[in-house]
Protein 1
Amino acid sequence: MSGRFAPKPAPTRTTTRGGDLDVPSERPDLGLTLGPLRRGPHDPTFRVTPTGEIWRASRTPDGPGTVRVRAHGGEVTADTWGPGAAWLDDHLPALLGAEDDPTAFVPRHKLVLATHRRRPGLRLTRTGLVLESLIPSVLEQKVTTTEAYGSWRTLVRQYGEPAPGPAPEGLYVMPDARTWARIPSWEWHRANVDGKRAATIVRAARVAPRLEEAALMEPAEARRRLELIPGIGPWTSAETIQRSNGAPDEVTTGDLHLPGIVGWALAGDRTADDAAMLELLAPYAGQRHRAARLILLSGRTPPRRAPRFAPNDIRAL
């Protein structure tokens, strides 16, 4: 089974955005803003060129589409192709953080303040697309990022389709919901995805229209909608809604590393759990996700004592 096809040519749409994307640095930092959408250095849906252009391939409600974004001074120029071009163009401001309000954030710690000043172009992206963030988040459940990125890459290349337009070679649009739901069990295994994660993705794909509605909901309501699916818990719903809804307060809980990183950065406590992390982030109520991102961007992490989590290749079983 393969979802590949030769897309029909579509006219190029070019949009220039300037004043509505102003940040203290007078330009958005595309890498910081769109970086969370990239699933590893070889993500087939995301490409950064040596000149700093960012290419993304998405499956929109109108079909597959490609967007290329470039920053020039205080402006961002975007070109879009494919059946989803108009949808991507309409959602470009949100994608680049125009709906985000960084002025609502008040640093409460010296480390956070210093990072905030060094990263003035950070905006929180809002894609408006749930499934494209949910599926790779499910793949990242309880495995190393290397394993998850490899599985995402394998499945998108096998069941997705080449991105429309003059996209770089190897850029793909992820499969549609129907294709995700019909991937055979042995192909999940070949992609190094265990049965539990595969079943969660299949369940989500079967109710994709209902899940996509969450992109228009308030973040807390959106997370409840996602968590109705067995296999989707607080970690996965937060990771998804942060991207699809641009949610500044949806901090990730249940993560193996984040509580210790936040605890170490703000209190010198590498043993912090979720409860301690949330207490430390309480002064940032309404902006806890942004605070956590700035802490991660600070680079201040606790010294490693335990060995790294060993990858588990189920394909050898």
Protein 2
Amino acid sequence: MRFDTKIGIVVRDDLAAWQRLNVTAFLSSAVAAGAPELIGEPYEDGSGNRYLPMLGQPVLVYTASAEQLASVHARVLTRADISEAVYIEDMFKTGNDADNRATVLARAAGDLPLVGVAVHGPRNPVDKILKGLSLHP
């Protein structure tokens, strides 16, 4: 199935494996929270056990250098039709959502020490924003 929109998550290539997974999980939740229409129906197994719904379309995960990540972020900021979530280095040192938001608020857009971003929007513009990045191995 071909979707009209695309979800891409970009994580910095020098992160530890646990950090890449953590950032990807948080950024996926941001996409789900910001676009609830992307959430599918709950799951149920043959025994009648119910499970939480998930995003109803694929999430592509890419890796990028710090410079590439900053470039993706800068391109997204010029597009009103693209939604973005950010994860910055400072968030690894906090333990709650309020402190995470405060770390982002304390910095200007061009000074965010990005370790990951999620982008969601129409397929073609998202493809252009992510062009040249490698899919996560």
Protein 3
Amino acid sequence: MRTGTWATLAAGAAGAVIVRRAVAARALARRGAADRVALVTGASRGLGFAIAADLAARGFRLAICAREPAELAVAQAELAARGAEVLALRCDVADRAQVDDLVRAVIERFGRLDVVVNNAGIIEVGPLAAMTVEDFADTHAVMFWGMLYPTIAALPHLRERGRARIINITSIGGRISAPHLLPYNCAKFAAVGFSEGLRAELSGSGVTVTTVVPGLMRTGSHLRAQFKGRANSEYAWFALAASLPLLSMGAERAARRIVDAGLAGRAELVLTPAAKLGTRVHGLFPATTVRVLGWVNRLLPAAPGPAGPAVAGSVAAARLDSGLLEAATTMGRSAAQRLHQHT
């Protein structure tokens, strides 16, 4: 037999061994997760649903929450159909009393809590002139206080496990404040600061904190985001950026990497090449980065006047009725269907 043939057979055998080991490792991880419980906030749709589905596939029992009961019921039914044990509870994470009740209900149902994924979020897009002080307050309520409240409520139970995980979903907007997303960015900056400081404070406690810094992801969120100012034009650029494969990342792939990093206890996970490049450039050349963002701002739609009501992405899409934009956002709309972002 020729040397090349032996090499091919050897490579094939080695590949088979690697595959078998990977399958065995995943099966072992699944058995080890059989009694473990994960709480995911904002899990009725989008990235939160994808993370919950990934945890379910690993054998976790799930507690999920969201503000809309009908959407929550759909998510619960699909996760249960995949074989997961799911407790679904309506909860506004901006309301501390509701969050305390949520965590209490999880402990009463499962008797333990091993993983908390703080994912709930909202997105408002538009220039500062179109925003109000209330817009800043609303984003902070959900994405800062809505991260703090579940963490504080869950910590005593997580400490009991001896080896527990907190996974905080922040954003590249919490590292680089891009124009036309200012309320969102401010809330995400606060979330990053809380998450990184929390990891330091919990060092040695057995509870590890992972700060996830995603770039653009194809979750269908552009259909649920709120747009102000020249809403249709704002929707067009945001939907395009959140759908193109070179700029955005698939939600299911992102969820898999997020759960892997969180369970491994990693300090940080930055997702998408663009986000990684952006954070590095900003770290080395902050003044230049801000100058470039100023140029980008000039290309974005200007505010038509005083702040007005926000327009949902699905409404803006219907108003535009653009075949070209629809074709360019095919991947984003497909993600919206899979991840329950449709309205």
